[in-house]
Specification:
Chain lengths: 165, 165
C-alpha cells in the first residue's frame, strides 16, 4: 500500500521537479548573461541596431506622410528628416572588424569581405539623407516626397545586398 | 510484471514530457512575441533605450579620456561630445504617456506623475551637453573635463531620481 502510493506520487513529483529545474537553469543562464560584460562585437552590434532604431523612429512617420497615410506636417516632416540625416553618418562605425557575430544580427557576413562597397553604399545613403533634409526644410511636399523616395532607394540598395532575413 | 515496468518508466517519461512541454511553451511564447507588432509603448521604450545606447557609445570613450584612462584625443573627444549633444534632445519624446510599462524598462513610473520636473532635469542635461560640445571643440583638456563633469552630474541627477536598478 505504502509502495503503491509512492508510485502514484512520483510521476507528479518528477514532472514538478523537471519544471523547477528548467526554471532554475533559465534563471542561472539569465544571470550569467546579465553579469558577463558585453564583448566589443556585441557592443558594436547593439550600437548599430540602436542607430537604425532611432532612424526608423523618425523615418516611419516621414514615410507615412510621403505615402499619404498620415497628414503632411511640414515642420514635423523637416525635423524628422533632419534627424535621419544626423543619424545616418553614425552607422558605419557600428561595423568594426570582428563584429559579424556576437549577438543576433541581420548583417550579412559579406559586409566585412566587401567593406569598400559597403562603405560606398553607406556614403551614398548619407548623401541622399543630407539632400532629403535640406529639401524637406523648404516645405514643398512634392519635392520632399521625391527626395524621400531617393533616400528610401539608397537604403534598399544596401539592405538587399547586405541585410539577411 | 508488465504493470511494475510501466511504473518504473513513467517518472522518466513524465519528466521528459515536462521538459518538452516547457520547451514548447517557450517556443510558442517566443513566436508570439516575435509575430505580434510592437505596441506604441514598446516602440517608445525601445526608442529611448536606443538613444541612451548611442549616447553611451560616445560617452564611454569621452569619460575614459576625461578620467585619464585612455589618452586624450582632442578631435575624437570633440566629435563624440558633439554626438552626445545631438542625441540628448532626442530622449524626451521617448517618454510619451502610457510608456511606463510595455517591455523591460528602468524608467521609474513616477516620471509620468512628475513630468514637469522630469522635463526640467532633461532640459538641464541638454543644456550641459550643448555647453560641453562647444567647449570640447576648443580642445582645452582641463576645460573640457570640467564641462564633462557638469554634464555627468546632470545625467546623475535624473538617474538617481527616476531610474530604477
Amino acid at each position: 500500500m505504502q509502495q503503491s502510493r509512492d508510485f502514484r506520487r512520483r510521476p507528479l513529483m518528477m514532472s514538478a521537479l523537471a519544471v523547477v529545474l528548467v526554471a532554475l537553469a533559465g534563471v542561472v543562464l539569465h544571470a550569467q548573461a546579465q553579469e558577463k560584460p558585453p564583448s566589443k562585437a556585441e557592443q558594436a552590434i547593439k550600437y548599430r541596431q540602436s542607430v537604425y532604431k532611432v532612424i526608423l523612429w523618425n523615418f516611419g512617420p516621414v514615410a507615412g506622410m510621403a505615402q499619404g497615410k498620415i497628414p503632411y506636417d511640414a515642420a514635423d516632416f523637416a525635423r524628422r528628416a533632419e534627424r535621419v540625416a544626423t543619424m545616418a553618418p553614425m552607422l558605419l562605425e557600428g561595423y568594426p572588424a570582428g563584429s559579424a557575430t556576437g549577438t543576433t544580427t541581420r548583417a550579412h557576413p559579406e559586409i566585412w569581405e566587401h567593406m569598400d562597397e559597403f562603405t560606398e553604399l553607406m556614403k551614398a545613403m548619407e548623401g541622399k539623407a543630407a539632400t532629403f533634409a535640406t529639401i524637406a526644410k523648404d516645405g514643398d511636399f512634392e519635392k520632399s516626397r521625391a527626395a524621400f523616395v531617393e533616400l528610401a532607394d539608397a537604403c534598399k540598395a544596401c539592405h538587399e545586398k547586405y541585410r539577411t532575413d
